[in-house]
Specification:
This protein is α/β, with parallel strands linked by helices. The chain contains eight helices and eight strands. An eight-stranded parallel beta sheet has the order 1-2-3-4-5-6-7-8, with helices on both faces. The relative contact order is 0.10. The model has no long low-confidence stretch (mean pLDDT about 70). It comes from Rhodotorula paludigena.
Length: about 280
């Protein structure tokens, strides 16, 4: 008879073998789950007790298709089913119309945590947040591509709001402006920031930070700063960033990756990063 591993060890093995449960990994997780049977048949009840499952409701809006399907109807159906869903993701990357603020708030009613995928260079949809539903306590920007978002507008309406994570993809030639946090309580609530994929195609240099960077003031609440780019920071930039993170007790992570000729993105899963830090 084959020895049986402790149930906790079996679950740990599966945890290491199966990638994080993100939308991109769904197919892979499904295949691996069928190939990793557990010896103990009672594993499922144990897993339900030990592994927290937090359902997140996703609303995708493409083009001008905000009314079809009607998000409010879907939310009512979720409520009627008896499921408790505290997280919602608004995927607005392909949306063309502005969001009507009143509808925006009706859709977000009752949720405690909101994940936002914003369109590139979008301002109006993002700034609808200035009257975001006060029930929301946590906010995660999983994409924010240079949107001109004034974070100071949000807090008068949501005094307890905490920004868990922001993933920023600035324009290729632009630097990230840290003053977006100045003058608002965002400087005391933002926890994690990821700056990615901003470089000069001619010189190959990273443009996330000014070439002559000599000082950097980080939000006091910032726990981690991740910088992802296909180039290399200058020694001066790295020295200033490292010193700022040390003063702020912030963990600094630099990830340099290589792009093949003609390749624009490296296939990095931004949702996986957001889940790992939040």
């Amino acid at each position: 008879m084959f020895p049986v591993l402790p149930l906790e060890l079996q679950l740990r093995i599966i945890e290491l073998a199966v990638p994080p449960l993100t939308k991109r990994n769904l197919g892979k997780v499904r295949r691996l789950s069928t190939r990793l049977p557990l010896v103990c048949r009672s594993w499922r009840d144990f897993a339900y007790r030990v592994v927290p499952v937090v359902p997140r409701f996703t609303i995708t809006c493409e083009g001008r298709d905000w009314d079809d399907p009607d998000p409010e109807t879907i939310l009512d159906a979720v409520a009627a089913s008896g499921r408790v869903v505290r997280e919602v993701e608004l995927d607005l990357k392909l949306m063309e119309d502005d969001i009507e603020v009143s509808r925006f708030n009706r859709v977000l009613r009752g949720f405690e945590e909101v994940w936002l995928d914003l369109p590139a260079d979008e301002t109006n949809s993002a700034n609808s947040l200035d009257t975001v539903n006060p029930s929301i306590r946590r906010l995660v920007f999983t994409t924010w591509q240079g949107a001109d978002l004034d974070l100071s507008n949000i807090w008068p309406f949501t005094p307890n709001l905490e920004i868990l994570g922001i993933a920023v993809r600035p324009p290729y030639s632009g630097c990230f402006e840290w003053d977006v946090f100045e003058g608002s309580r965002a400087s005391n609530t933002v926890r994690h920031v990821c700056l990615q994929f901003a470089y000069d195609r001619k010189t190959g240099r990273c443009t996330l930070f000014d070439p002559d960077l000599f000082s950097l003031a980080l939000p006091p609440s910032l726990l981690t700063l991740t910088v992802r780019h296909p180039s290399i920071l200058t020694s001066g930039q790295r020295s200033v960033i490292t010193a700022a993170c040390q003063r702020n007790d912030t963990i600094f992570v630099e990830q340099v990756y290589t792009l093949a000729p003609g390749q624009k993105v490296d296939g990095w899963d931004i949702e996986e990063w957001a889940l790992s830090v939040t």
